[in-house]
Amino acid sequence: MNVNMDVGVAQIEVTPDVGIDLAGFAVRPQPSTGVQDPLYARALYLSDGAEKLLWLHGDLLSVSDVLADRIRSRVATQTGLDYSRIWISTTHTHSGPATFPQNGTGRTDGSYVAWLEEQFQAAALLALKNPERCVMASVQGRCDLGVDRRKRSSAHTDSRVGALAWKRPDGSFKAVLLTYSMHPVCLRGALISADWPGVTAKVLSDSLPGRPVALVLSGACGNINPPSVGVEVDQVQQWGQQIAEAILPDLMRTPAESRPIDRPVLKVVGTSLKLDLEPWNAPEIDAFAMASLSGAEGHREFGAKFGEAVEAWRQTMKQRCLHNAPPYTQAVMAIAIIGKTTLLAVNAEIFSKFTSLVTQDLVDSTYAIGCTNGMIGYLPTREAYDEGAYEVEWSLFFYNLPRPRQGGCERLAQYARALLNPATFSLNPKN
């Protein structure tokens, strides 16, 4: 399906200087020793006349709630756009610079973060300056690279590769947005890289006429890894190209003319939901920390970083108790319905099953996206809590955050379903 929209784009390189610490892995050499491929801040501006969306996207692990709010607020002030119509997401590359404090995973460089904010603001202003009337096309492909890394009975993956593209009247492409649920953890080492999303973005831009700006999202990938972690650069190149090629042929065949649709072209909603946290008091926090420290597995996998992270987390959580911090976390959710495609963005490392929990009997052109508009850590499914493992038991130590109570993922999915019911957005049920 193709529809007319006004589209603006921008792309600014934000590769840090070599020597900056990298985020994403507790066990890695620090600081960075070189650049494998450049990092970018990208902007995509969409308008159908009545509705607008300015989407900022960076080759970073994630941005904190504080940083996301600061960037969105400043851009809103500069542009006059509504705050809820400004999104900021990341590729979630684990070979990008540390941009907010985490335990044991790289020191944050405050000067780089301040400069990064300026680049996102510059990208936003550039995107608003060059809108062109374009035709949007949506396609869906398939890629079976992603594997459920937890290896538990609740294993779930999402093989869909979804893409939206905007073409000028002459048939050249101005922008592409692609989402595929797979963690960008292909590379280990100390090289700065956008990982597979950077490769996919470059392949899309190089392959399509007009060299479009490409925003590549790692989807709902909280439980999904590539086939292997710590592979050679050539392998990352192959995987990134494979993901791009899952939709490139169909994109090339999309016609340049538009067709009418039976609902608004663009609708954007910003909302949030309070999710209860584990109601641990100080003795329970101590007990959880001691139980984690007494096991050999965490020390074996993360070395000294594990103990350091647990102790730092213990002190942070006890301070929360001392100061009567709120017993909930704020799940920020943003919804964009573009043509007949629905994008559902969450400020968490969301599990892939979340998409299925939301959609069920709705159309399958709905994609969940994590690492958007902040970060509250992992949001696992109910089954994952019963099964344990890193996402449930250890990730909170490195994020230095409290853990949502079991069932939070399902509650958020239920809330999203209520927002996406046919009476609200005129979604058509599956045939």
So how many helices? Answer: 14
Radius of gyration: 21 Å
What is the residue-mean pLDDT, rounded to a whole number? Answer: 93
Count the beta strands. 18
* Global geometry: globular
Arrangement of strands in the largest sheet: 5-4-3-1-6-8-9-11
Q: Compute the number of structural domains.
A: 2
Overall SS class? alpha/beta
In helices, the fraction of residues equals 25-40%
End-to-end gap = 17 Å
Strand percent estimate: 15-25%
Model regions low in confidence, pLDDT < 50 over at least 5 residues: 257-262, 425-431
The biggest beta sheet reads: 8 strands, mixed
Write a concise keyword list for the protein shown above:
single chain; alpha/beta; disordered C terminus; 431 residues
List the helices and strands and how they pair.
Blueprint: E1 2-13, E2 34-35, E3 40-47, E4 52-58, H1 65-79, E5 86-90, H2 110-129, E6 132-142, E7 147-148, E8 160-167, E9 173-179, E10 191-192, H3 195-207, E11 213-217, E12 224-225, H4 233-245, H5 248-253, E13 266-276, H6 282-294, H7 296-302, H8 304-322, E14 328-338, E15 341-346, E16 349-350, H9 353-359, E17 366-369, E18 378-379, H10 382-387, H11 390-393, H12 395-399, H13 408-419, H14 422-425
Parallel strand pairs: 2-10, 4-5, 9-11, 15-17, 16-18
Antiparallel strand pairs: 1-3, 1-6, 3-4, 6-8, 7-12, 8-9, 13-14, 14-15
Helix pairs in contact: 1-2, 3-4, 6-8, 7-8, 9-13
